[in-house]
Structures are given as C-alpha cells and as structure tokens.
Design brief:
Elements (H helix, E strand, L loop, with lengths): L13 H19 L11 E6 L5 H12 L3 E5 L12 H9 L4 E5 L3 H9 L5 E3 L7 H15 L6 E5 L4 H13 L2 E5 L8 H7 L3 E4 L2 H5 L4 E4 L11 H8 L6 H6 L5 E4 L11 H4 L6 H22 L2
Parallel strand pairs: 1-2, 1-3, 3-4, 5-6, 5-8, 6-7, 8-9
The structure holds phosphoric acid mono(formamide)ester and norvaline (NVA).
C-alpha cells in the first residue's frame, strides 16, 4: 500500500476526515473512561521542530506515550539537517528507523520534499502555508459542542495566514460556509480561495463576516517569523480585533475559536477569549485526541 501523508487537509477525502473526527471523539471518551489502548507499542514518531511549540509538541509526545509508543524530539541544531544534510537523504535515513515524522518549519515545500522521499507517513505540524492538525481539533470541538459543522457559517477575522488557509480547506472538505475578513494586502492565497468556490467569501469588513456566524475564529496578527512586522501589523489589524460587539453580530449560540497562543488586547479582547462563548481550551485539549486518531489512521488503519 502506498504511504499516506498529512501535509494538508486535502490529503484526506471528506469521508476519511469525517471518520477521523468521529474516531477522535471515541478515543477521547475511551481515555476518559480509563481504558488503556496501546496500538503503537514499539512504534516511534520523530518530531523535527524548527519553530516554537507548546500544544503541537506536547500533544504528539503525549499521544505516542499513551498509545504505548515513543516520540523523539529533534531541534534543528541537533541534527545534521542544521549543517546542510539534504532533506532527501534525511527522509530516506529516517524512513529506515522510525514509523512516522511530524515536521514544523516555515517552508511548506521543504515538507513536501521530505514526504516525496519518505517511505513513512509525514505529518505537517505547521508550515507558513497550512496547519492541518489544528483543524482536526477545531472541527472535533465543534462536533462535540454543537453537532455537525456541515452547512454552518464560520467567520475568520484577521490575518489570511496558515491557519486561515487550513480553515479554507476545511470548508471544502466539511461543507461549511467560510467568510474571511482581512485587511487588503493580508488576504489568504488567491489560488486556494478560487479552488474553494462557493465555500469561501472574502471581505474587508469584520462585521459582515461575523453576521449570524456559528463560529468566529481568529489568530495572532503576527505569526512566527513575522516578529519584525508586529508594530506595523498591529496598526493595520486594529479594526479586526474580535470583541464583544463583534460577537453580538454572530448567532446567539456562536462559539469563539483561537488556535492559541493568543494575545489579549490585540486580535481578541480578554472578555471574549475568557468569556462564556470561548471554546479555546477544548480546542487545545482536542489536539491530543484528534492527533491520536490521525496517528491511528496513518500507522494502523493503512497497514
Ligand atoms: N496551536 C498551536 O499549534 O500551538 P503551538 O504553537 O503551541 O503548537
Ligand atoms: N499563525 C500562527 C499559528 C501558531 C500556532 C503562526 O504560524 O505562528
């Protein structure tokens, strides 16, 4: 069987993704009921992280531990990748020793090159283009709290960044309607928006996007690698802060989502992220359960 990767949500079909979400819910319930489950005993996940992480790193490491396996965390300077060993060679070598790899780095094409030369599943742990693991957790969170996301209205407010790109792919795969409100010059990638067809609409007006939305979602205005732009971005994004007034535009049972880390007083006010509509802690916890379902899919179900 050919090896499956998870570099973008589009690497899986709609039915596969739905099954994964349901499996994430089941795995979470079984864990909470105290049932031990060790489908990955003796299996090893390598984690190449070229950027900071709290949630992604911890959730994958804990997932492997709880599944009876092992994770190896590799920072860039600690491998020969940092000294110029070709990605292709590294992918071949690691394929002979470990069972899967998670990569977090800026360059999406680096991860694609790695995957093209790997004989083991490669998972995107965040690139400048996509953050697909985050969306598994976010969609699982909505299913658990409000039911099926199909046909729902989602408002993305802020930067048209990597997480926004994954929401665009999610709108295609899970059949919901996404309105993206960004300042001009900070829109998501046009080709991604085009391929999403009717599922995605762009606007520069946050209030239009939030109108009757079931989910209002935002992210930091300055992603990792954009630290030097922070001040300029803060000025441009000021009208895109998610506050109580914006949330009042949304449906009365709307939820507020954020992948975290969040910057209170910038992209979101404290009363919203710490308020009753916020589901950010559930999203963060679901990284663990959703990624367990992903690891099971890639390493057990595909055999
Ligand atoms: N949301 C998310 O990916 O968080 P980390 O950067 O902490 O992994
Ligand atoms: N857009 C953010 C997401 C962090 C999880 C970044 O890339 O830094």
């Amino acid at each position: 069987m050919t090896v499956r990767h998870f570099l973008s949500l589009l690497d899986l079909g709609a039915d596969e993704l739905r099954a994964l979400i349901h499996r994430g819910v089941e795995i979470k319930q079984a864990m909470r009921a105290g049932q031990a489950y060790h489908p990955l005993s003796n299996r090893t996940l390598a984690m190449i992280f070229d950027k900071s992480s709290t949630r992604t790193r911890i959730s994958f490491e804990v997932a492997m531990t709880q599944f009876g396996g092992n994770a190896i965390f590799l920072s860039p300077g600690s491998t020969q990748l940092g000294r110029g060993e070709p990605i292709e060679d590294t992918a071949r070598v690691m394929s002979g020793m470990v069972d899967a790899v998670v990569i977090r780095t800026s360059s999406h094409s680096m991860v694609e090159t790695f995957a093209a030369h790997a004989q083991i599943p490669v998972i995107n742990g965040l690139t400048d283009r996509f953050h697909p693991c985050q969306l598994l957790a976010d969609v699982q969170t909505y299913f658990e709290l409000r039911g099926d996301i199909r046909g729902r209205r989602v408002a993305w407010v802020g930067d048209g960044n990597n997480v926004c790109h994954s929401w665009i792919n999610a709108a295609r795969r899970f059949d919901f309607v996404l309105t993206v409100a960004t300042p001009n010059g900070y829109r998501p990638d046009a080709s991604l928006v085009d391929t999403a067809g009717d599922a995605v609409t762009l606007t520069d007006d946050p209030l239009t996007a939030a109108q009757d939305a079931d989910i209002v979602v935002t992210d930091t205005w300055a992603s990792m690698g954009q630290e030097s732009e922070k001040e300029r971005r803060s000025a441009v994004f000021e009208p895109y802060r998610v506050d109580a007034q914006l949330m009042r535009r949304a449906a009365s049972d709307a939820v507020f989502m954020h992948c975290l880390p969040a910057y209170r007083g910038h992209e979101v006010t404290a009363d919203v992220i710490d308020g009753p509509q916020s589901v950010v802690w559930a999203q963060a916890e679901n990284r663990l359960h959703a990624q367990k379902a992903l690891l099971e899919f890639l390493l057990v179900a595909q055999k």
